[in-house]
Each structure stands twice: as structure tokens, then as C-alpha cells.
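Re: your question about Diacylglycerol/lipid kinase family protein

S., sorry for the slow reply, the queue was backed up all week. Below is exactly what I fed in.
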Amino acid sequence: MTVALLVCPAAGLGAAGRVAGTVASRLRTACGDVQLLVASDAEGTNRLAHKAVRDGVEVLAVLGGDGAAHAGVQACAGTKTALAVIPAGTGNDFARALDLSLDGVVEALRTGRRRSIDLGRVQRGAWFGTVLCAGFDSAVNERVNRMRWPRGPRRYDLAIMLELAQLQSKPLTVRTPAGEVELEATLIAVGNTPFYGGGVPICPDADPGDGLLDVTIAGRASRTELMRILPKLRTGRHVDHPVVTTLRASSIAIAGNDWIGYADGERQRELPLTVECVPKALKVVA
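Result:
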């Protein structure tokens, strides 16, 4: 079996770099030789991932967070190469959704287990394994990307508070094969898997094996209402709130305003966006 281990040393505030040697040793116990690839930045991660797949590795193992997993998804989707994700980031939502861990990956490599999962895909854009969002959440992402302080999860907490102070709803049109929904909204999330933001089940029932994408829309809400909804996000109970609408569809067209879409935490582009579910697009070592 040919296996490449792609390491993103900066992931998890340096955690990936610190455990890379141990991880490589564990993988070698299951499959023999492991080619070690070390990326210095996001561009390097993408480049090395695609090169490994072009070179014909049977398994691309990625050690890092959701950004690294996203790069692995782009390289492996629609190919014969299986993706293994070993979580070492701050969010780890892709690994969380598929119950991936170092022990699990080692065992799956030893026994040859694979699982085929669905992926979301942005029309003329990226694949995504977790969630595509736009609105309040993407505004938080935009702000976080401009901030240089503080580091880690506190940056997101501060960005959330700053964006809440500027909260406003916008017209949103959502089209699916079943029909069209028009409303004033504060955010929309399209989930292939349930989690984003480090374990928030924004689309709690999303299943990467059902051929469908789950949609969660928060309608027009005041700051006070949104503050009441936010604590329920961690339990998935937000979907029971009257201002929240949920849908399920194989394809979704989102339009009506100038929100920026983010998929797997990576910036896409301004609305309108069309996304579709591509069944069994990715083989995962799990």
C-alpha cells in the first residue's frame, strides 16, 4: 500500500508539527513505508496534496485541522485515492463528523476498511465535506481573517460579538428541486455533515451518505433573539426555534443579496451560489 502523510505543522497552533513523528511511526506499523510531506502554508498544502494524488498514492493521510482536510478533499474527490484525516487542528469538524482519530485510521489501514461518502460541490468552485455558510457566520469568518489578535478560538469569540453589534437581516432566495423560499434572513448553512465552528451542529441531521444536503436558515431576528438562539446551537435545538427553517435537497441555489459564501471555513465568493450533493464522491479511510 502506498501512503503519503501530509503534515501542516502550524495546525492547532503548532500541535500537528509536534506530533508528526509519532503519527508517522504509528502509520508505519499498519502499512509499512509512509512518504512524509510537509507543507509550509495553505498553498503548499494544496500543491502537495494534488501532487501526491497525481503520483498515484493509494492513501493520502492528512495531519491537521479543517483547512488541511479541505485541501485533502479537493485532491482526492472523484479519484481512486482514499483520504485519511488525523485531527490536529482547532476545529476538526470533518474528523468529528466521521468519527476519525489516529487509532481509527491505523486500524482501518491495517484491515483495509474504506467508506464512500457524499460531498457538496459549489458550482464552478470547491468541493466541501462539512458545511457551506453565508450571512452572519461568513461575516464572522471575514472579520476573523482580517484580525491579527487574539490567537486561537478567542478570535472567533471577539468577532462574533463585533458582528452581533452590526447584525441586520437581508433578503434571501433559496431554490431547490421542490420549490422556492423567499424570506428575510440572517444566515444560511448547507450541510453535508452536521458540524462547523469547532463542533456546532448547525445542520444536526446531515448525513454524508443520504445523497442530500441539509439546509438551516435563520430568518429575520433581532440581536436579542439571536442571542437566545446561539446557546441552543451546541445541542442542535436551534432548529426548533420559530425563526429557523430547515430544508433537505440534492441541489440548492442561494441568491438575493451580497453575502460571501464559506465552505469548510474557506472563502468561496459572493452570492449567488449554487451547490449540489455528489453521492459517494470521496473514499475515506474509516
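Residues 77 and 282 are 5 Å apart (CA to CA). The chain has two domains: 3-113, 127-279.

Happy to talk it through on Thursday.
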